[in-house]
Task: structure prediction
Amino acid sequence: MEIPFNTVTDLAGSLWIKIPLILIATAVVSGIADLFIKKVVMKLASKTRNDFDDRIIGIFRKPVLITIILGGVSLAVHLPELPSALLFGVLALIKTFLIVLWASAVHRFAGMVLKWMEEITTYSIIQPRTLPMFDIISAVVIWGGAFYFIFLAWHIDVTGWLASAGVIGIAIGFAAKDTLANLFSGLFIIADAPYKLGDFIVLGTGERGVVTDIGIRSTRILTRDEVEIIIPNAVIANTKIINESGGPYEKMRVQSTVSVAYGSDIDKVKDILLSAAHSNEHMCEDPAPRVRFQSFGDSGLVFHVMGWVDRPVMRGRAIDSLNSEIYKRLNAAGIEIPYAKHDIYIKEAPFDIQGDALFTVKQKPGQRKNQ
Result:
């Protein structure tokens, strides 16, 4: 029995045939894509030395497959002559689901990239203390964009909302300009890294201490008096900073200036000063201490004793013990440490010395003496 040609074309043109064919074709394409990812992409990724690309594939594999499937579903729902409102609602739901799906995947990918940047030293701005902030910023940007596209999918005009948000942002910016200045200064300090935790720094205003915390808003230093100073980052970013712990190593040079009387044996003085520096337990042997005959002073010969300490925190103790030992050794050797003296010579005194009075002014004729 032959089937009429019209019947076959009617069946082929029937919705009950087209929709399943589209869905089957979608499933086949999705399976091929999944097989390609497993057999080709993941095999290539397994040959790399790290698992970064494997994690990227794990994040985006599911969104790609779901996007293919929902793409076929969206084609299928166009075939029936559905009411325009119902068709719009179905397509808007599909778009919303895809936007949320991809926003979630991109957010996970951004978090993975930030974590990777935090683990390597090249990107110093990404640190454990700043990682949550950058994660929040990425989430706001990604999900803000996602909600914008969701509104577009439902044909919601967001122009007025954006304008209002711009006005509010300007108002907030003026109200919180100091806070924002500290925030951006904190980011620049972390990126530029003029100092790090544990460094001894001296600010242009004279404060000196060890850095105990570098925050987004402020930096904290602990002085030698055990007083914590909190400095806004906007202030510290615009001031001169001396990092005593910076340089190729943390060692710091200390110096003591010594003056001995004229006529002293300078070779003996150098030996005494150098032995005092070598005997100091706070001084480093490498670099070795050294003594320099600096200048001819007003009251004596000026020497500089220079040595190095392992850490800037030891500077005060090293100078104290060095000066004490120098004084003892010079005193034991009979070498005088001069002090400033001024001798006044009076060539002619304009007064007469009489009786018990030290100075008596000569009277002029006719002048009565004051009692």
About this structure: Residues 84-119 form the longest helix (36 residues). The longest strand covers residues 252-260. The chain is about 50% helix and 15% strand. Residues 5-171 form one domain.
